[in-house]
Structures are given as structure tokens and as C-alpha cells.
């Protein structure tokens, strides 16, 4: 059995952003040696890891050579070179989640096909190799307006996703491989965080409810537990576990879902790593998602996923029209409120809708937490100096 | 108003041990720039701070020059050069807790006199300038056997403290300034963590109950909340707040107390910094003691001190007779249990009774937590390879 604690064991993390930064709180807590690779010299992970390396996450040689130095590789961002990971696996290196899992998820077209093949409920869609094919498909009535357009590669946080309502919207789209998806008339967006270890132990967090900002298309509130019926929550959890098992996923998997008007659950997409929808867990859960990810990839026993208290997460995004050195205006006002904890990701510069941090609001009473969350959202402003 | 978050503000921390390491989780969370001074090149704080400086904490020049570089100075260990701190204050630098507070606490004789002067209940004692005076005092019956001997300087975790039962015990004592204190026949040892900010805001954590290891004289369990009557808890909290105010303390103050057989409360000693008796707060409290310390010294609003769930802390100390590269034997066994989180401080070498980490056990039911804590204690062993 490997000794991870205060030992020579080396964990490699691809990506050095805020997710990695929060993961490092827990590698520090366990005193696990970490190596981080990121292209940004000011990456939030730069301090707190044992070894920081500058480099391109999509470059085969860079990722391969980085991987050779460590005992186990994980990632905090999906846009990494999968071929290098596959080669490392061939040479006996542990990669969690695996290159195969990542490959199935990285391309949104492949991800959607995977759901179909594995009988996982998801909205109907058609994959198009480029814009001409897409336009042709619309013209031939293969997909009706309005629909959801998604770039198959590289989209996140509302980038690479559009609702296409008219020919004019269609014209504005970039010429890339894409999927066109039926617009789901949903009641609610839900997410379930699943942790799974190599030995197959699986634990699921309570269902969370998500509210999106109408313009920025970024999550505005994540509410745990979701205010839905128990039987719907049970159904969501079952589907999420099925997704995790189908992908043979190891680590944290965030499964985002739609709850339709008919109480059907459709899988929207997944993130094979700690996720925004699990940030509430730092304050609210028995085991936070970052510690759980570490436990899972190291094949350690998974921690309890129950909540200690209700939790709500509010994203701190840069106010529109502000660019430059960041100031968290009125942060002292929100810190006066019970159960309010700001998390500042460490980006010195703000810009419109940039994810700069988040605030967690915890309370025994979720309705009370919701009220405080709304106050928090109205008071704090992420502006430039 | 100062902007602390992702700004140029510099926080200096004297001492780079495990307390500093845990404090850095929260400076990272707030993205506050940190400078750490410690004599150990392998100090647990070395990574996760922005700037690490090797140096002697008792050296005037070192501490003074370090202090000049930062905007505000705090410490995670009391054995630092107070004169340098006083000079920095004179030159307008903020030092929290203040040099005056630290001076009153550093010397245990002074600390005890301070309690007398401020009408804070404490066990009767006599201060002796050296061993000859002590021996004379015992011979003249000024202090009766058995009594508690404490070196006035540099003692912690059972070092510099002895119970003197006989002339033979007396002979073994070192020749240093000391106090001889009446042995208190106590029911229970309690502690209260008080947070106080420069503007005088004060918040108190629930009373915790401590159980000591009989040989190592180190805390074995810290139980929150203490299983005592409400009126005794209220009395303990009042006394702790009085102590914090009397010291004009800023930051976290841990007030350790005895509960006597007659339900009297006597202050034993204080620690002017985050403390072992507050470690449970990382998992169990609305605001953990490290975040609270940061909030307090920066004069930010203090966070809620209520517990989310019951919490018990078990120290991980090196097993007797084991010296060398550390192994946390059976750590996977304890990680299977609900609400169990190990904290590994990052010391590569173990030795008998060395503080290597701690384990927190949380549960809605404190009696259930106590059962799990005992299992944890019996299962995990800190041994050498």
C-alpha cells in the first residue's frame, strides 16, 4: 500500500486555476507533495504547490514530460493533451480520471453520443462537422428553431453555447464542429456530484439546484439541498451514479441535469473534476469536493457526503464595464452576515463577467440562507479601482 | 479603508509551524499576501506563503527588519522578540496581538500577576527567581507539597511544567525563574476561544472540554461543546471575555481554565494565537479559528462562532520509542469512519510524543462523535518506517 502522507509520493495536477488552488488546501492538509503545470505565470496555484511548472497543457511533450516526473496525474481543467495521458497510462502511470474518460467528455458531440449509447436520458441532438452542415440541417428541417447550439470543443461557462432563435442568430455562429440540441423547457437545473474511486466505491452528494444569470449564462446561485421532491432527488442521484459508472470515472464528476416540466430528468453535460456546483461543500459538507477528489484518485476511503447545514453559493463575477485592478466593494458588509464566507481566487485583474471568486452562505435553514444570499448578491460588487 | 483582497497589502507572520500552515489556508482563501519568518528551512509554512524568510524569531534585528517589510505583523508562536515588535509599533507599524499583550503573557510569572491585578480568578501561586529561592520557599513552608512547578519562560505542551510531590522531584528541577502554584483538584479542564478586533468587537466560541494524556501531558481529546451545565459554560465564557478585554488582546486568545470540585472556574493560562483547543473549529464551526484570527487582526467583521455540528479533536503524537521517517499506520481505517478528517502537519520525522497532526471527528451527536474519537485514537499509530 502506498504511503501518501508526508512521503515521497508525487501528485501531478494539470491546470493551476482556482479549482487547483482549492484542491491544494486539502493536499496541504494531508501533506501530499504536489506538482502543478499551468501556462500562466500568475496562476492561483503557483504558491501552495510544492513544484510549479510553466507550460502548455495542450502540448504533448510538455504534458508527457511533466507526467513522467510524478506518480499519479489528475487535472482541474479538461483542455489538456489526452494523447500524452494515454501514452503515460501505457507506460504504467496512473491517470485519474483516465484518458479514455476524458476523451469521451472533452468533445461534446462524443459526450452526447456516449449518453445515447449508454441509455442515459439526454435532450435530442444532431452533430454537425461545420457551419455549412449545420445551416443545411436547419434548412432541411432536421433541427427546428429555436435550438441550443454548442461548440463540441473548448466551451465552458457560457462560452461556446448559444440559443439560436433565428436565421440572424445562425449567421453569427463561428464555423466549428458543433451540436444542435432541442431546447428543453425545463423547470429547474440540477446537479449531482459523484465521487468514485478505482476500486469502485461510489458516494453521491445531495442534489443541488442551480440558477443562472440571464445575460452572462453563468451560475448565479447554487442551492444545496435542492428544493425538490424526494422522489425526484432520488431519480437524479440514480442517473448521476449511472453516468459515473458508465464513464468508469475516477474522482469527482459533476453531472448537470435538466428537470423538465414533466419531471423527466435529462443529463445536460458533465465535468470530470471538482466543479462550481460543489463549492458549497467546503463549508456545508462533511467532506468537501476537493478532499473527496483527492481521496478518490488515491483510492482512499471516500468521506461522508452529507451536509452539516444548508449551503448556497454565489459566484463573484466581474461587474460589467469594469476592467483593471480588482476591488471587492462592500466585502466587509457581507462579512458581517452570519455564515458568509468569501473565496477570492487571486486574479489581480477584473473584467466583465470574469469569475473572480465565490461566496458561500451557510445556515441550518435553507430559506434563511437564500435570503442572506440575495442580500450578498445585491451588496458586493467586483469592480476596478 | 485598506483593501486586503488581491491587493498589495502584506501580512507578516512570525513563526512557520503548523498553526501558521493552517492560517495560510485562510489567507489563501482571501488572497492576502503573506510573509513568513521561521528558523526552520523545512517549516510547514514554507509553501503556501508568498515569501518565506529563514531567521531567528528571538533576534531583534531579524524580527525588526522582517517587520519593516510588511504592513501588519502577527505571530503563531509566543517566543518572538518583543522588543523588536515594540519598536515597530513605535514607528507606526500595526502589531496584533500587541507587544504589550505578548509581554504580559510570555512570562508565566507576569501572566499570573496580571490575573491577580485584574481580579481574574486563578490558582494561588508564588514566583521564585531561581531554584535556590524555590527550595527556600518550600523549606519555609511558604508553598506546600504537592504543587505545580512552571518555568516562567518558554514552556509549552507539558515542557516546563511538573507536578512536584517530593523533595526528590524538587531536586530534578532546572535552575530557572519559576512559579509554584497550588495544585488544583479539578473536575475538568475547559477552554474558551475569544476573538477580539482592534475596534473592540468580541466573539466567543462555545466552551470546550479537554482531556490530557497522563504521561505526555498533551491534550488527548478536545470536545466541543463541553458536556457541562449551561450556567457553568456561561461563567466560563464571561471570564474568558474578561481576560481578553483585560489584555486588550487582538486576534484569537485561547483561555484555558480549571473547573474545580466546587464549580469554581480558575484561569490556568492563555495562548495569544490560534490554539490546539480550537482546531475542531475547522470542520465544526461557522468560522474556523484561523479565518477568525485573520478577520480580527485586519479589523474585519468577526464571523459567527456557533458550531454546525459537534466536534472532537484527537492529537496525533509520535508513538513512544519511534524515531525517524514517519508513517501514519492505519490512516485508511480511520478515514472510513463518518466525519473523520486527518490533518498532517508536514513533519517528515517522528519522535516520541512529537505533535505530528490531529484528527477531527464531527457528528450531529457529540456522544456518537466521542465513540468514534476513541476508535480513532486506538486505531491510528504514528510510527517510524
TrEMBL record, chains A, B:
Q: Which domain of life is it from?
A: Bacteria
Task: Name the residues that bind ATP.
Answer: 108, 150, 181-184, 189, 268-269
Q: Start and end of every ATP-grasp domain?
A: 112-298
Per the UniProt entry, the signal peptide is: none
The alphabetical list of record keywords is:
ATP-binding, Decarboxylase, Ligase, Lyase, Nucleotide-binding, Purine biosynthesis
Reaction equation(s) it catalyzes: 5-amino-1-(5-phospho-beta-D-ribosyl)imidazole + hydrogencarbonate + ATP = 5-carboxyamino-1-(5-phospho-D-ribosyl)imidazole + ADP + phosphate + 2 H(+)
Q: What is its EC number?
A: 6.3.4.18
Biological process, per Gene Ontology: 'de novo' IMP biosynthetic process
Q: Name one GO molecular function term.
A: phosphoribosylaminoimidazole carboxylase activity
Is Nucleotide-binding there in the keyword field? yes
Q: Which HAMAP family match?
A: PurK
Spell out the NCBIfam families in the cross-references. Answer: PRK06019.1-5, purK
Family to which this protein belongs: Belongs to the PurK/PurT family.
State what this protein does: Catalyzes the ATP-dependent conversion of 5-aminoimidazole ribonucleotide (AIR) and HCO(3)(-) to N5-carboxyaminoimidazole ribonucleotide (N5-CAIR). Catalyzes the ATP-dependent conversion of 5-aminoimidazole ribonucleotide (AIR) and HCO(3)- to N5-carboxyaminoimidazole ribonucleotide (N5-CAIR).
The protein's name: N5-carboxyaminoimidazole ribonucleotide synthase
Q: Which organism is it from?
A: Aquimarina mytili
Q: Write the lineage as a comma-separated list.
A: Bacteria, Pseudomonadati, Bacteroidota, Flavobacteriia, Flavobacteriales
Which gene codes for it?
A: purK
Amino acid at each position: 500500500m502506498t504511503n501518501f502522507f508526508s512521503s515521497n509520493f508525487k501528485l501531478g495536477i494539470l491546470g493551476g486555476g482556482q479549482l487547483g488552488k482549492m484542491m491544494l488546501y486539502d493536499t496541504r492538509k494531508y501533506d501530499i507533495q504536489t506538482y502543478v503545470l499551468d501556462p500562466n505565470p500568475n496562476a492561483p496555484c503557483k504558491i501552495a504547490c510544492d513544484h510549479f511548472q510553466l507550460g502548455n497543457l495542450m502540448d504533448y511533450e510538455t504534458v508527457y514530460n511533466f507526467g513522467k516526473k510524478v506518480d499519479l496525474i489528475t487535472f482541474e481543467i479538461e483542455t489538456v493533451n489526452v494523447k500524452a495521458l494515454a501514452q503515460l497510462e501505457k507506460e504504467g502511470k496512473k491517470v485519474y480520471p483516465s484518458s479514455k474518460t476524458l476523451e469521451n467528455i472533452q468533445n461534446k458531440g462524443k459526450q452526447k453520443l456516449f449518453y445515447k449509447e449508454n441509455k442515459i436520458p439526454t435532450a435530442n441532438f444532431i452533430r454537425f462537422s461545420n457551419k455549412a452542415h449545420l445551416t443545411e440541417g436547419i434548412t432541411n428541417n432536421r433541427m427546428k428553431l429555436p435550438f441550443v447550439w454548442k461548440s463540441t470543443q473548448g466551451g465552458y461557462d457560457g462560452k461556446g453555447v448559444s440559443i439560436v432563435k433565428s436565421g440572424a442568430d445562425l449567421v453569427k455562429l463561428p464555423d466549428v464542429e458543433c451540436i444542435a440540441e432541442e431546447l428543453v423547457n425545463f423547470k429547474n437545473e440540477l446537479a449531482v456530484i459523484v465521487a468514485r474511486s478505482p476500486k469502485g466505491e461510489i458516494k453521491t452528494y445531495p442534489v443541488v439546484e442551480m440558477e443562472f444569470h440571464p445575460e452572462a449564462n453563468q451560475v448565479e446561485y447554487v442551492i444545496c439541498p435542492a428544493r425538490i421532491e424526494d422522489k425526484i432527488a432520488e431519480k437524479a442521484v440514480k442517473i448521476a451514479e449511472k453516468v459515473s459508472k458508465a464513464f468508469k470515472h475516477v474522482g469527482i464528476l459533476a453531472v448537470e441535469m435538466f428537470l423538465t416540466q414533466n419531471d423527466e430528468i435529462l443529463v445536460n453535460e458533465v465535468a470530470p473534476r471538482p466543479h462550481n456546483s460543489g463549492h458549497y461543500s467546503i463549508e456545508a459538507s462533511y467532506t468537501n469536493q476537493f478532499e473527496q477528489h483527492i481521496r478518490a484518485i488515491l483510492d482512499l476511503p471516500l468521506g461522508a457526503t452529507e451536509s452539516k447545514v444548508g449551503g448556497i453559493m454565489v459566484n463573484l463575477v466581474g461587474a460589467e464595464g469594469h476592467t483593471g485592478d480588482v476591488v471587492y466593494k462592500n466585502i466587509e458588509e457581507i462579512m458581517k452576515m452570519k455564515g458568509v464566507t468569501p473565496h477570492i481566487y487571486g486574479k489581480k485583474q477584473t473584467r466583465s463577467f470574469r469569475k473572480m471568486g465565490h461566496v458561500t452562505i451557510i445556515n441550518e435553514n435553507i430559506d434563511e440562507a437564500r435570503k442572506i444570499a440575495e442580500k450578498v448578491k445585491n451588496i458586493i460588487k467586483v469592480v476596478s479601482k
